[in-house]
């Protein structure tokens, strides 16, 4: 336990930090569930989100009806369609998913300001200081779960525990539509019988190494001296032992600062035409710039990502002389990286992406005797286009960005 926690009155008993109340809320098959929500005719059918009918791309989400056939996220779409040829394949609507995500997180923030997003569809919530107002953590978890179902129409699984590790594990134990509470009283008995692969940081390689010690369940770790484990796993041994006892003192960290912002697209067919690639690149740069402005950030580095038919994936980056959020600056830099730095030599691409990094908050710009009229004009254009995009969505594009075919 950290000194700060001890000073705040948090106690540790039997290896579990007491007093803290952490929730992990995880939406069930989120992207697929949103598609079913918007089109009820899909209910009960195997739904796959991600990729194309030709089998390009990867699965972003699969309904539980599709998972019965062995389909899972991050699987190639081609493999998924072989396993479940009767699936309804949808390309994905990330703008819509973001809209629903904001509704869900708005519910979270009604109960606590301490919300740590892990992705658009899951988060940790520290409700320790909110229990006097809303009741015990278990009640808060059930309230949130019920409100998401009744007000938004989706299903969440919830884990309630004294720390983040146990809360996330709890939300996974009873999926879908799960609700699981870890307490000081039941923790040891439940953990002891779970497979060792349930511990964070135990992948296939580590799992095989642990099996050499006869460790197949989490409880098996308790009989191995730390010094013996350290001979094989080094400092990682202590981490494994702490988690095996349900110990995790990491705080919930609200809204971690973004380190980069990016968009990429995988094409249904490889594209070699430079004009078409430039048009797609322009749209990606515009999306990235718009997100920068929405978050009130500037960038200093622009990165181009490309992928060839053989899956080699080079990247090229350029650091700008001044931080910017201007669409034109990001677009022109991305074009230079594509046309002058990538070394494509006419080879067709299967994927292209633009990202920005070295993000910073805008400072007060010094007054100048001769203002840059071009920069001022571009800023006005960006402002107008942002307003129009907020009203009409992706139908609004700069004229030079129109492309011949949809990717």
Question: What secondary-structure arrangement, pairings included, does this model have?
Answer:
Layout: H1 3-7, E1 12-13, E2 16-17, E3 22-27, H2 30-38, E4 47-49, E5 61-62, H3 64-67, H4 77-83, E6 88-90, H5 94-109, E7 115-119, E8 122-126, H6 131-134, H7 137-152, E9 156-161, H8 164-173, E10 179-181, H9 187-193, H10 204-212, H11 226-233, H12 236-244, E11 260-271, H13 274-294, E12 299-308, E13 315-324, H14 327-341, E14 349-357, H15 373-392
Parallel strand pairs: 4-6, 9-10
Antiparallel strand pairs: 1-2, 3-8, 3-9, 4-5, 7-8, 11-14, 12-13, 12-14
Helix pairs in contact: 5-7, 11-12, 13-14
Strand proportion: 15-25%
| Average of the residue pLDDT scores | 84
Helical content (DSSP H or I, runs of 4+): 25-40%
Order of helices and strands: HEEEHEEHHEHEEHHEHEHHHHEHEEHEH
Q: What's the CATH architecture of the largest domain?
A: 2-Layer Sandwich
Distance from N terminus to C terminus (CA atoms, Å) equals: 51 Å
CATH class of the largest domain: Alpha Beta
Q: How many beta-strand segments?
A: 14
CATH topology of the largest domain: Alpha-Beta Plaits
C-alpha geometry: globular
In DSSP terms (H or I, runs of 4 or more residues), the helix count works out at: 15
Radius of gyration: 25 Å
Strand order of the largest sheet: 7-8-3-9-10
Poorly predicted ranges: 1-18, 364-371, 390-396, 400-407
CATH homologous superfamily (4th level) name of the largest domain: Reverse transcriptase/Diguanylate cyclase domain
Describe the largest sheet: 5 strands, mixed
Secondary structural class: alpha+beta
The number of distinct structural domains comes to 3
